[in-house]
């Protein structure tokens, strides 16, 4: 079983990069299931019904998210659909729309958010512990949307052997620490992003630089044209024991 997990897709440029590269990658790499982080896909902040359809149309099976999931109320109705393939972090209060778990007969995808430097939220450790023993016996993949590398690593080690893989998202910076933990759980601190190469986290670099000079929060716009990066990891699972056989970076660059 070959699973592709794709980093934060940023704005129109990221969506164009995704739709250009993903269909061929699915065929070339014989990918069985695609999970993509979509919380920055609509103008850099949030996700909408329209942008989510673009994901699904090019081959994404499940969209995960994070702290920006609430930026575009247009998506709330889609989050509440039965068996929704658009997830919000599962450790948000149950009163919020949607769920953080997708499952079928072959795979479970869980979306969690970190509690370090990410605002007030239930502990992701408590959240996953409360549900893990009740889940079906199929491969489990977690998108852990978190700021602190230490928190991502700690959760991966805590779950080693009980889930198939945990990947970090949120920083938009791809890390090279992809590895298989001793009991068979695949891990990487951050998938990276899909967006402008000559940018700051996918956003116009001049606006970001100016913030550090004057402290003023001006509007941030995603880079839409030029050199683009596509960051992801390809995870191969042994279906007999649900453990990771390999976890490799799958990164591409194109010009749009």
Describe this structure in words.
With 256 residues, the protein is of the alpha/beta class. It is 23% helix and 26% strand. The chain contains 6 helices and 15 strands. The strands form 3 sheets. It has a 6-stranded mixed β-sheet with strand order 5-6-7-8-10-9, with helices on one face. A 5-stranded mixed β-sheet has the order 4-3-1-13-14, with helices on one face. The chain has a 4-stranded mixed β-sheet with strand order 2-11-12-15, with helices on one face. It is globular. The two termini are 32 Å apart. The mean pLDDT is 96.
Defining key terms:
6-stranded mixed beta sheet, 5-stranded mixed beta sheet, 256 residues, 26% strand, alpha/beta
Short synopsis of the structure:
The protein is α/β, with parallel strands linked by helices and 256 residues long.
Gyration radius, rounded: 17 Å
Number of helices: 6
**Strand neighbour order, sheet with most strands:** 5-6-7-8-10-9
What is the terminal separation in angstroms? 32 Å
In the predicted model, the low-confidence regions spanning at least 5 consecutive residues are none
Could you say which structural class the secondary elements and strand pairing correspond to? alpha/beta
Q: Could you spell the SSE succession in H and E letters?
A: EEHEHEHEEHEHEEEEHEEEE
Shape: globular
E-strand count? 15
Report the sheet-strand fraction.
25-35%
Largest sheet: 6 strands, mixed
Mean pLDDT score: 96
Query: What level of helicity do the residues show?
Result: 10-25%
């Amino acid at each position: 079983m070959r699973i592709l997990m794709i980093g934060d897709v940023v704005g129109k440029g990221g969506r164009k990069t995704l739709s250009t590269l993903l269909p061929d990658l699915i065929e070339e790499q014989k990918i069985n299931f695609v999970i993509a982080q979509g919380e920055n896909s609509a103008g850099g902040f949030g996700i909408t019904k329209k942008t989510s359809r673009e994901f699904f149309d090019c081959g994404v099976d499940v969209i995960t998210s994070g702290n920006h999931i609430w930026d575009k109320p247009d998506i709330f109705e889609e989050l509440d659909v039965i068996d929704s393939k658009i997830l919000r972090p599962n450790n948000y209060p149950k009163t919020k729309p949607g769920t953080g778990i997708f499952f079928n007969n072959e795979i479970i995808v869980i979306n969690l958010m970190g509690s370090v430097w990410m605002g007030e939220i239930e502990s992701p450790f408590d959240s996953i512990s409360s549900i893990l023993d009740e889940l079906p016996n199929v491969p489990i993949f977690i998108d852990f949307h978190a700021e602190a590398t230490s928190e991502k690593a700690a959760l991966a080690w805590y779950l080693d052997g009980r889930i198939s893989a945990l990947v970090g998202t949120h920083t938009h910076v791809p890390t090279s620490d992809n590895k298989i933990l001793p009991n068979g759980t695949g891990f990487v601190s951050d998938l990276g992003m899909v967006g402008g190469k000559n940018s700051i986290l996918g956003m116009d670099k001049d606006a970001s630089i100016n913030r550090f000079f004057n402290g003023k929060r001006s509007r941030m716009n995603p880079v839409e044209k030029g050199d683009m990066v596509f960051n992801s990891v390809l995870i191969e699972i042994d279906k007999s024991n649900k453990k990771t056989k390999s976890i490799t970076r799958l990164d591409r660059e194109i010009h749009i």
